[in-house]
Design a protein that fits this description.
This protein has 4 helices and no strands. The protein is mainly alpha-helical.
């Protein structure tokens, strides 16, 4: 069960990006294409009542925040394990914990 949770944390950042990409696609289909065909941009925005770009931006910010968390977590784990491996055997005590310097 713990492995499933770790996988969800490490790959969950993809969901906000997929959500943002979906809303960008909807914006293109509902707003951009009709505007290019001669429609009024403001009238189309008022007709749909959905703020596609705001929702996409919010989801993208959430995705980048989540991705940053995952990268920092992986880097911290790699740093701690590489510091632990580089210690001499006499300094490697299982009761000691590694700390950031």
């Amino acid at each position: 069960m713990k492995q499933n949770w770790k996988t969800a944390v490490y790959t969950g950042w993809l969901l906000p990006f997929l959500f943002a990409a979906t809303f960008m696609g909807l914006w293109i289909v509902d707003i951009v294409v009709p505007t290019l065909k001669g429609g009024n941009f403001n009238a189309l925005y008022d007709l749909n009542k959905i703020r596609y770009l705001d929702i996409s931006l919010g989801a993208t910010i959430i995705g980048f925040t989540w991705l940053s968390y995952v990268v920092i977590r992986i880097a911290k784990k790699e740093y701690c394990s590489s510091t632990h491996d580089s210690l001499p055997h006499s300094d490697r005590d299982s009761t000691k914990t590694l700390r950031w310097r």
